Structure formats: structure tokens, C-alpha cells
Automatic annotation (TrEMBL):
All residue ranges annotated as the Protein kinase domain in the record: 1-196
GO MF annotation: an example: ATP binding
Gene Ontology annotations for the cellular component aspect, listed alphabetically: membrane
Organism: Dipteronia sinensis
Keywords per UniProt: ATP-binding, Glycoprotein, Kinase, Leucine-rich repeat, Membrane, Nucleotide-binding, Phosphoprotein, Receptor, Repeat, Serine/threonine-protein kinase, Transferase, Transmembrane, Transmembrane helix
Membrane topology reported for the UniProt record: Single-pass membrane protein
InterPro entries per record: Kinase-like_dom_sf, Prot_kinase_dom, RLK_Ser/Thr-Kinase, Ser/Thr_kinase_AS
Protein's recorded name: non-specific serine/threonine protein kinase
Cell compartments where the protein resides: Membrane
Lineage of origin: Eukaryota, Viridiplantae, Streptophyta, Embryophyta, Tracheophyta
UniProt EC number: 2.7.11.1
């Protein structure tokens, strides 16, 4: 696509003037959730993606979501009784239950999508190359910061603004629902679509 992947714009672009603004990040999150909902609920047969990540989200010339790339060997129907001993997915996005069950599920996709939401909010990669005892993966770091009531420090400084704090923290809460360690407590993707579409609606209605 004209503008490459979300991963590129969040983590590799060196042009500071091209940093994705909050309104664009929100639209990308909303569009990506609809794309995943289409796979899970609309297309026949329903599809579990198994490798949802920022590099599989492509943007057009207007930086709007186009699609989640479907890697043929990585997708399967959710009602298949398919268990694999091959690790499918990408480090940092793989749901914690996968190591025990080796079964890809729709709620596993939701976990991976929650990590993408954290990338949009923080500007950080799911797994950072770093040194020292305090180095953590993105999910663990976010939960630690939340436990210390330091939510504002989680947000990428390039999009932080006190005027949009409510919207940013709303998306953070949605992301944390998606990455719940217990898959049974994670929302279905259609619920995530509804949550994301509701961000900012109240403020817009008051204008």
C-alpha cells in the first residue's frame, strides 16, 4: 500500500513531521477492529487470523486502515479442531494461554489486537531491545504502570494532551480488557468495535 505498514509509521519512520497524530491513530484502531470483526463474524467460513500485529496493518495514502494481511498458513476456521505444535504468531503478540493449549482462538486474536492498541497509545514495540533488570515486555510494563496509578506516563508524549486525556485513557482501558490474562474475560471483537467507536462521541456531541 502507498503508506506501508502501521509498524513502519510507529517505530521506523525518522521523519518527525510524519508522526501519526491521535485522531489518525484512533481511526486506524477503529478500522482495524472492524477488519478483524469481519474475519471473525462476517466472512464464511469465519477465520481466526493468528498473527495480528502492527506490521500486518497496511495504510493507504490517507493513512486509513486498508486490511489485515491474511497469511494463508496462519489462518484457520475457529470451529476446526486443529492443534499445532508449531509456534504461530509473533513474539510480543502471542496470547499467554497459547503455550498451554496450542489452540488459536478468536479471543487470542483479541489479545494480539490489544497489544496493537498499546503500540498506538505508547509508541513502543511489544518487545523492546534493552538491558537491565527493569526491562519488561510492553504488556507487563503497562500493567505495572497502571498498578502504580501512572497511566498518563504510559501515553506516547507526541500525542499526550490534557484536553484529550479522557479519550486516551478510554482506549487504554479497552486495550487492557483485550490483554486480560484470562481469555474468558476478554471481550469479543464486535464489543471492541463498539467500545472504540464510542471514544470521543460524547465530546463531539457537546460541540
Amino acid at each position: 500500500m502507498e503508506n506501508g505498514s502501521l509498524d513502519y509509521w510507529l517505530h521506523e519512520s525518522l521523519d518527525k513531521s510524519s508522526i501519526l497524530k491521535w485522531d489518525v491513530r484512533l481511526k486506524i484502531a477503529q478500522g482495524a477492529s472492524r477488519g478483524l470483526a469481519y474475519l471473525h463474524k462476517v466472512c464464511e467460513p469465519h477465520i481466526v487470523h493468528r498473527d495480528v500485529k502492527s506490521s500486518n496493518i497496511l495504510l493507504d495514502e490517507n493513512s486509513k486502515l486498508i486490511w489485515l494481511i491474511l497469511v494463508s498458513q496462519g489462518c484457520y476456521r475457529p470451529y476446526d479442531t486443529h492443534v499445532t505444535t508449531d509456534l504461530v504468531g509473533t513474539l510480543g503478540y502471542i496470547p499467554p494461554e497459547y503455550s498451554q493449549t496450542l489452540m488459536a482462538t478468536c479471543r487470542g486474536d483479541v489479545y494480539s489486537f490489544g497489544v496493537v492498541l498499546l503500540e498506538l497509545l505508547t509508541g513502543r514495540r511489544p518487545v523492546e531491545v534493552c538491558k537491565g533488570k527493569n526491562c519488561r515486555d510492553l504488556v507487563s510494563w503497562v500493567f505495572q504502570m497502571k498498578s502504580e496509578k501512572r497511566e498518563a506516563e504510559i501515553i506516547d508524549s507526541s500525542i499526550w494532551d490534557k484536553g484529550r486525556e479522557k479519550q486516551l485513557l478510554e482506549m487504554l482501558e479497552i486495550a487492557c480488557k483485550c490483554i486480560d490474562h484470562d481469555p474468558r474475560r476478554r471481550p469479543y471483537i464486535e464489543e471492541v468495535v463498539s467500545y472504540l467507536d464510542g471514544i470521543g462521541v460524547e465530546a463531539a456531541g457537546q460541540q
